[in-house]
Design brief:
alpha/beta; 205 residues; 16% strand; TIM Barrel
């Protein structure tokens, strides 16, 4: 994949936003987000037809702004809605078992550290998400913080594999991630919870 697409990777679900999530997502896309992931998790998460409709609306926005649309952990939804790719966690379906639909799509995998790297089949994986680099309030299952040095270690171990830093990224620390091996940063709350979404996006660029 084009690693520059990882530069500013926005992750969002309907319950990460107060108000209309589509307005927040469009503002982020319009102001420079380079990749978008729908991560619909937690209490009050959309399901079934409501989730399909929400994903379809996001796909329209991503097409409008020419930003690839990734879906987290739901290959069937990704295929049905015609998404540009899938992001998998360590406990999700193995990437080697994905349907042929994903043969020419973007496949991401969460790989926190060297231990998980040893256990991961990267044969079909286009990029990895590494972290949490810093403490994050957005995911209660995020795992132990690896810090900047952990991020740098992962870069050394993975060579040229495209890699995005995850977890607790802010305007004050994102540059450190780029300087220590990440091709980009992925965010939830720093954009989704911002009063001025466009301004928040621009601070990371």
């Amino acid at each position: 994949m084009d690693r520059s697409r990882l530069r500013l990777y926005f992750i969002c679900g309907s319950n990460n936003v107060e108000g209309n999530p589509l307005l927040v997502i469009e503002a982020a896309l319009k102001n420079g987000v380079t990749l978008f992931q729908l991560r619909e998790k937690g209490e009050y998460a959309l399901e079934g037809e409501a989730l399909f409709d929400f994903a379809s609306d996001i796909k329209v926005l991503c097409r409008k702004y020419n930003v690839p649309f990734i879906i987290n952990d739901e290959p069937e939804l990704a295929e049905n809605v015609g998404a540009d790719g899938i992001h998998l966690g360590q406990d999700d379906l193995d990437s080697s078992l994905l349907s042929p639909y994903f043969d020419d799509k973007i496949i991401g995998l969460s790989v926190a550290d060297s231990r998980e790297l040893e256990q991961s089949d990267l044969g079909k994986v286009d990029y990895i998400g590494t972290g949490p680099v810093f403490t994050t309030p957005s995911k209660d299952d995020a795992g132990e913080v690896i810090g900047i040095h952990g991020l740098e270690e992962m870069r050394n171990l993975t060579g040229d594999m495209p890699m995005v830093a995850i977890g607790g990224i802010t305007p004050e620390n994102y540059q450190e991630c780029l300087e220590h091996g990440a091709d980009g940063v992925s965010l939830i709350s720093a954009i989704a919870g911002a009063q001025d979404v466009g301004g928040a996006v621009k601070r990371f660029l």
